[in-house]
Each structure stands twice: as C-alpha cells, then as structure tokens.
Design brief:
The chain is mainly alpha-helical and 225 residues long. The chain has helices spanning 6-33, 35-42, 47-61, 68-78, 80-105, 107-114, 116-128, 131-140, 145-153, 159-181, 189-224. Helix 1 crosses helix 11, helix 5 runs antiparallel to helix 6 (107-114) and helix 7 crosses helix 9.
Length: 225
C-alpha cells in the first residue's frame, strides 16, 4: 500500500529542493557580494572576464564543476548582459571541445572527463538525438549543455549542422535571457533565487521535451519489432 502518490512525492521533493536552494543562497550571498571577494575579482581587471569564460569552459568539460556559481558572481560584478555574453562565449568554445572529445577520442575519454553518471545521461540523449532535440536543448537545456555537446559528438550528425544549430539557438536564448533579466539585482537573495529558479524551470521544460522524444523513440522501436 502506497503511503503517498508519485505526484505528491514529486511535489514534496520540489518543495524540499526549493528550501535547500533558499538556504544555500542565504549562506552563499555574503561570499558572493562581500567586499573582499568582489575586490579579488575586480582586481583581475581585464583578466576577470577571461577567468569567467575559462571557468565556464572547464565546468562544461569536467562534470564535477558547476557553472551556476560563476554566473551569479559574474552577474553581481559585471551585470547580467555582459555575464550572459561571457557564458555564451564559454559555451560556444566548450561545445566544440566536448563534441570533438566524443567524436575523436571516444566514450572512454568522455567517461574520464564527465564520469559514469553523466555518461548514462549522455547515452540517453544519443538514442533520441536529432535536430529537434538539439534545438530544444540549446534554447532551454542550460543545465545539460555539456551533456548534449558530448552526446552529439557520438552521433552521425555533421559538425557543421551541430555547430550552426548550437550557435544560432544559444544566441537566441542569450538575447531572451538578457532582455528578461537585464535589470535583475543578483546581489540580493530574491534576485539569485529568481535566476536559479528560472534555470530550473527551463530544465524542467526541457526534461519534459526530452521525455517525449524518448517515449516516441520507444514506441517506434516497439512498432518496428
């Protein structure tokens, strides 16, 4: 006998995650907005943006690193428009690196860099990879940017088609993000919560789209059998 339905359990998990994010933001905010930390980044001068772009690239290539902290720090210091531009630049570079690691070096190197857990996610995308999924991922799948880049390197899609879609759709997403959040105050708890919440919402929508493609592929495979 089930004590709680799956839908209610999902809601409970979502509430717990939101609470944890809120406490994390409250704890991290003094470090992100503190005078000493901001001075450290500011003192980098012209190298500050390069450090931000470099971190984004590293976060996309090496799975254990998370890109969100860099986005929050960058937005707090450089503002949302410039930070989105830096993240876009880093993403376009990492999308090439990840793609060619998969295509030229193979699965073993992807596992070494991304880990077994991420490799399982990559395998799921490889099965249903195609233009519609790539478009959706670049418009909404910010949190899985690295996974998608690795996944398409393992497909037969040409690099030209892959990169054209990646650049164009990511650029559209960046422009929309700047337009919506250009005046967002990321030095406040509410501002950070809105930023993280928006990324999470986009991830949920993309997750639904991915699930649709998986179900569609499964039904086609079953029919063919």
């Amino acid at each position: 006998m089930k004590l709680i339905s799956s839908k209610k359990l999902t809601v409970v998990k979502a509430i717990i995650i939101i609470i944890l994010i809120w406490f994390a933001v409250r704890w991290l905010m003094p470090m992100v907005t503190g005078d000493e930390f901001q001075k450290f980044v500011t003192d980098l001068g012209m190298w500050g943006p390069f450090a931000l772009v470099g971190y984004v690239i590293a976060a996309h290539v090496v799975a254990p690193l998370a890109g969100t902290p860099a986005a929050i720090v960058g937005a707090a210091i450089y503002g949302v428009p410039l930070t989105v531009l830096y993240i876009f630049t880093g993403g376009m570079i990492s999308s090439v690196i990840n793609f060619y690691i998969s295509r030229k070096l193979g699965r073993q190197w992807v596992v070494k860099l991304a880990g077994e857990k991420t490799m399982k996610k990559i395998d799921k995308f490889v099965v249903v990879a195609g233009v519609p999924l790539l478009v959706a991922s670049r418009l909404l799948g910010f949190s899985l940017f690295d996974v998608v880049s690795y996944a398409f390197g393992l497909t037969k899609m040409s690099f030209k088609k892959y990169y054209t879609i990646t650049v164009s759709c990511s650029a559209i997403a960046a422009v929309i993000w700047i337009f919506i959040f250009k005046n967002l105050d990321v030095t406040s708890t509410n501002g950070v919560m809105i930023w993280i919440g928006s990324v999470a919402l986009a991830a949920l929508i993309f997750g639904g789209i991915s699930a649709y493609f998986v179900r569609k592929h499964s039904s086609i495979s079953t029919t063919e059998k």
